[in-house]
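[09:14] KT: can someone run the structure on this one? pasting the chain below
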Amino acid sequence: MTQRTLADWLDYLERLHPTAIDMGLDRSRAVAARLGLGKLAPKVVTVTGTNGKGSTCAFLASLLRAQGKKVGVYSSPHLLRYNERVNIDGREADDQSLCDAFAAVEAARGEISLTYFEMGTLAAFWLFQRSNLDVVVLEVGLGGRLDAVNLVDADLALVTSIGLDHADWLGDTRESVAFEKAGIFRHGVPALCGDLDPPGPLLEQAGSLRAPLFLRGRDFDLALGESTWHWRGLDSTGKVLELHDLPLLDLPMENAALALEAYALLGLPWQPAALQDALAATHVTGRLDRRGAMWRGKPVTLLLDVGHNPHAAEYLAQRLMSRPIAGRRLAVFGLLADKDLVGVLRPLQAQLAHWNVAPLPTPRTRPADELHAALTNLHASVSVHENIAEALDAACEHAAAEDEILVFGSFYCVAEALSWLERLAEGE
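[09:31] RB: done, structure tokens below
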């Protein structure tokens, strides 16, 4: 029998379960038991939140690797390759390792039906448990309480931010979202929150579990200067730790601050120079990700960001305002149908001279004519294109040397832009 390739496995996983999302832990927990999954590493950190999960995980992994720790990171979704989701000791898992892991989960699940995400999560756990890691950092996929990642009892539980997204699953209030996010907390286990206004249900859950809760603005915080920033926090003994005159970062510094507090609570050596270097070296594809390219002999500048909800759009707008450019900013934009379209557009409309909109390569896309209508109602300049690649070409055609093209609205949008950039580099 011919062995399945990774592409074969991913196609199979897409068809395995009747729905893409099926919240609940019972099925995954049963398969995990059959696989013999236990503690994935001596230390496990779980990260949830409406925005900022990916950069927080990346910052923490960089800080840990700077101390020589062997780190596993599980994240989602991916942009170009599924392998991006499983990172072991600074490298993406290779195809064969993922195929072996999927085969192990498939053999164990028997009659139990699992979603694509659940299969992938258990496969990552299986790989991590066999990789002799020091620390595993797990990014929650959706919510927290009922997400498959929450099978694992972590040593630290991080909540980055609390905003409105995935209302069908998490509810349409910050309180309902906070309740779901706080589902990753465990009895007596330290919990951290980077949101400056954590809703009551999160505080109540920490209290009922007697989980030591470290809050930004109270137990740790950052202060921004014109060219540097400063951090202050607590270690596990309550000792105050500080870092001064850190260089400003492209990625969100509040997420770096949260990662620093998590690092401080793990009781590892506090070496300011090494920590500063680790933060500065952290990069996350598709998050405030600036790229230069040559388009038909003409230099262009792109800024890629996967922001796709109002909270992310507001943060992106703030970052753009803090970094003025000599020219104009042009948008290439697509959005999924279940996202708050006007809530994403409003924070950014005043900063973008023209919008190039297109449908995304998924049945879940919001039609381009709806994007056009919403932007027209906001009195924005907008043109419609067949796909993201054509929208990028149109933006490049009209961009001057001092202009910047902002590509945002969805992981799908940024993934299309990355593929387009690869084709440009190859000379197509």
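[09:33] KT: thanks! The chain has a mean pLDDT of 93.
[09:34] RB: yep, looked fine to me
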